[in-house]
Amino acid sequence: MQEDFEEHAAKVKTLKESPSNEDLLILYGLYKQSTVGPVDT
FRET label pair with 2: which of 18, 33, 36, 37, CA 20 to 30 Å apart? Predict the structure, then answer.
């Protein structure tokens, strides 16, 4: 699973055009959830 995450994280960095702000927020949220864990506050 870690390999898949790293592969997809690298793909995001090489996108030909910049994602919308909404897409960037979604990607950031997924990144934080996968690296830090769910927010439980």
Answer: 18
CA distance readout (Å), 29 to 14, 34, 35: 19, 9, 10
Give me the tens of pLDDT residue by residue for the chain, a chain 41 residues long: 788 888 888 888 898 898 899 999 998 898 888 888 887 77
- The DSSP annotation for 1-41 comes to -HHHHHHHHHHHHT-SSPPPHHHHHHHHHHHHHHHT-----
Give φ, ψ of 13 to 5 degrees. Answer: -70, -15
